[in-house]
Amino acid sequence: GPSQCNIIGSGIFVSPKGVLENASSVGLALIVWIVTGVITAIGALCYAELGVTIPKSGGDYSYVKDIFGGLAGFLRLWIAVLVIYPTNQAVIALTFSNYILQPLFPSCFPPENGLRLLAAVCLLLLTWVNCTSVRWATRVQDVFTTGKLLALGLIIIMGFVQICKGRLTHAFETFQPYDIGQIALSFLQGSFAYGGWNFLNYVTEELVDPYKNLPRAIFISIPLVTFVYVFANIAYVTAMSPQELLASNAVAVTFGEKLLGVMSWIMPISVALSTFGGVNGSLFTSSRLFFAGAREGHLPRLLAMIHVKRCTPIPALLFTCISTLLMLCTSDMYTLINYVGFINYLFYGVTVAGQIVLRIKQPDLYRPIKVSLVWPVIYLLFWAFLLIFSLYSEPVVCGLGMAIMLTGVPVYFLGVYWDNKPQCFNTFIGKMTHVCQKFCVVVYPDMGESRNVGNQGTE
């Protein structure tokens, strides 16, 4: 269903290198993949309880806002708008350009500027598609999901063939001493591939029978995705040595060249299709979150406006596009992944802690799904380990994310909390909004319409 498609993104074609680099051995890297899958499933269970207890679209933003108040919710939104979505989209777009260009440069890495330029073209094209027609955007999603499944199917089948030939043993020979801080970073790299596991919580209002379907989606999709990821990684190491994997910027291309011979062109094309669809899907969900934020008065009304005829959220899409282009100033994907992974985990933990707080504050609240408190506690212990040691290993990258988040505090008090702003300020904002409305031909939907637009967005 949609949740597998949302979890399996470009991560599995990027993260294996980052996980192996930090874990320092194949065996440990596979353990990281399995543990990340288990932790993701535990997190998803906690989110399922919250999703049916606070049945609002907007995911963890809505839960944090309801449990910890407006400021915490705003900071979640602020960091999602400024860091999480733009960085995710930048990484996926860079993966797209890497897989397109790598086969053209067989003996070296593609040029930096070429990678950035192609990533920017991909992003601009998809922003235009999403602005033009909701139907086109959903068709792009459906068509390009097949690329993803084709690539992974090929990798896993070839991996099984290799295992049957007994090619697996040499992969486990090298085992370097490990560093606990590096292992925390390898979990951050792995968790990037599992991103999207909480997608259904963003559309709870639109789910048919969420009490049944949320847990079902979790129990089916996350074990399935973990299985696919572990086997894809086993397949990678049957085809190439750990050193070759670390030397490759496009793992699946190297895999294809090793095993598919004349047909090796299938791999880069399949992955490029998959990542193209990934950027498209991310543009979709980001505009959904902007709707939720502007509806609560936490974002400028302009960002929740939709085109008069096409019903597409043009201002939200343009904003996401511009902020992603800024992220393309760097083409080091692995730094970007650490950066976004740290911030994501920070808020996953705050949300899961919110589940415990809500149990204490409102023990009699109706909870159609109720999980044992053991699960959020296990999640929070792992969360604390991950944050402390990744901050210790990468203080600048992780600290930068924290600093950007804290810039949201004055913005919240000036923009949201301060009610009686001077008239001249309100007039200025009103005029600016009016100009942008004319430029984009957008209007503020009433609540019924915005739900309708939301539904179209996830066909």
UniProtKB/TrEMBL annotation:
<keyword id="KW-0029">Amino-acid transport</keyword>
<feature type="transmembrane region" description="Helical">
    <location>
        <begin position="372"/>
        <end position="393"/>
    </location>
</feature>
<feature type="transmembrane region" description="Helical">
    <location>
        <begin position="314"/>
        <end position="336"/>
    </location>
</feature>
<dbReference type="GO" id="GO:0015175">
    <property type="term" value="F:neutral L-amino acid transmembrane transporter activity"/>
</dbReference>
<feature type="transmembrane region" description="Helical">
    <location>
        <begin position="26"/>
        <end position="47"/>
    </location>
</feature>
<dbReference type="GO" id="GO:0015179">
    <property type="term" value="F:L-amino acid transmembrane transporter activity"/>
</dbReference>
<keyword id="KW-1003">Cell membrane</keyword>
<keyword id="KW-0813">Transport</keyword>
<feature type="transmembrane region" description="Helical">
    <location>
        <begin position="117"/>
        <end position="137"/>
    </location>
</feature>
<dbReference type="GO" id="GO:0005886">
    <property type="term" value="C:plasma membrane"/>
</dbReference>
<feature type="transmembrane region" description="Helical">
    <location>
        <begin position="399"/>
        <end position="418"/>
    </location>
</feature>
<protein>
    <submittedName>
        <fullName>Solute carrier family 7 member 8b</fullName>
    </submittedName>
</protein>
<keyword id="KW-0472">Membrane</keyword>
<dbReference type="InterPro" id="IPR050598">
    <property type="entry name" value="AminoAcid_Transporter"/>
</dbReference>
<feature type="transmembrane region" description="Helical">
    <location>
        <begin position="218"/>
        <end position="239"/>
    </location>
</feature>
<dbReference type="Pfam" id="PF13520">
    <property type="entry name" value="AA_permease_2"/>
</dbReference>
<feature type="transmembrane region" description="Helical">
    <location>
        <begin position="259"/>
        <end position="279"/>
    </location>
</feature>
<keyword id="KW-1133">Transmembrane helix</keyword>
<keyword id="KW-0812">Transmembrane</keyword>
<dbReference type="InterPro" id="IPR002293">
    <property type="entry name" value="AA/rel_permease1"/>
</dbReference>
<feature type="transmembrane region" description="Helical">
    <location>
        <begin position="342"/>
        <end position="360"/>
    </location>
</feature>
<feature type="transmembrane region" description="Helical">
    <location>
        <begin position="149"/>
        <end position="168"/>
    </location>
</feature>
<feature type="transmembrane region" description="Helical">
    <location>
        <begin position="180"/>
        <end position="197"/>
    </location>
</feature>
<feature type="transmembrane region" description="Helical">
    <location>
        <begin position="67"/>
        <end position="85"/>
    </location>
</feature>
<keyword id="KW-1015">Disulfide bond</keyword>
